Amino acid sequence: MIEVKNINKTFGENHVLKDVSLSFMPGKTNLVIGASGSGKTTLIKCMVGLHEADSGSILFDSSSFDELDKKKRRELRQQIGMLFQGGALFDYLTVEQNISFPLNMFTEMGEEEKKERVNFCLKRVNLNNANNLYPSELSGGMMKRVAIARAISMKPKYLFCDEPNSGLDPQTAILIDNLIHEITQEYKITTVVNTHDMNSVMEIGDNIAFIHKGQLAWQGDKDSIVSSNTKELNDFVFASKLFKKIKKGV
């Protein structure tokens, strides 16, 4: 479980996050949604330590990140998997080498053990025998699946996904959504997904937080989002004609 308590973050005179408090549950796909500039990306970066909040606290299973010493922070980071927006694969490394990268950095696994772990992760994302391919030889969907394999290679307790469907066609986006959801439930991971894709929300939104102008404006699940009376959320959700029809019951 991850708890965000009264987080504030400013950049100069811009108050990006304003006293945000949230809980993210294990075994659930926890989605953070909001318009561009709402603060959702800054929130995620504060949670993984890429930004330092001005005030407030972030707790991973009741342990405050701010209070951990250098050694404990390193141990915690080893339990965090990260799926970046563009996949962030290393072009000069093969698929196998990309997935092995965190294993080389953070573990003392032998070569055979690392190979077994890589093959397990590739099988889990349905990319058997792709070990020796380079990123340039992969489709966009395959690259995202390799990035997911790398993100789970360390058996993380926490998984953060930044716009995982960015640049994908709708059918491939659904496959990636379902894969993230399956892995989350299967391994009881606390998964946090930053997205503005309403299709993702309706497919895998176990727990959804809507950030508006730096504040938590609504929280609930995919079944209750369409019946919300929060104006700002409705303006965001029903911006497309498709979701306007859902609202009207067409």
State the secondary-structure class.
alpha/beta
Q: What is the total domain count?
A: 1
CATH class: Alpha Beta
CA-CA gap between termini: 38 Å
Percent in helix: 25-40%
Strand content: 15-25%
Order of helices and strands: EEEHEEHEHHHEHEHEEHH
Q: Which fold name fills CATH's third level, the topology?
A: Rossmann fold
Low-confidence stretches: none
Please tell me what the overall shape is: globular
Main sheet specs:
6 strands, mixed
Q: What's the architecture, going by CATH?
A: 3-Layer(aba) Sandwich
- Determine the mean pLDDT: 89
Number of strands: 10
- Strand order across the largest sheet: 6-7-8-3-9-10
Rg, rounded, reads 19 Å
Q: CATH superfamily, please?
A: P-loop containing nucleotide triphosphate hydrolases
What does this structure look like?
The protein has helices at residues 40-47, 70-77, 95-106, 111-124, 140-151, 170-187, 198-204, 231-237, 241-248, and strands at residues 2-11, 14-24, 28-33, 55-60, 63-64, 80-83, 158-162, 190-194, 207-212, 215-220. With 250 residues, the chain is of the alpha/beta class. The strands form 2 sheets. The protein has a 6-stranded mixed β-sheet with strand order 6-7-8-3-9-10. The protein has a 4-stranded antiparallel β-sheet with strand order 2-1-4-5, with helices on one face. A hairpin with a 2-residue loop joins strand 1 and strand 2 (14-24). The model has no long low-confidence stretch (mean pLDDT 89).
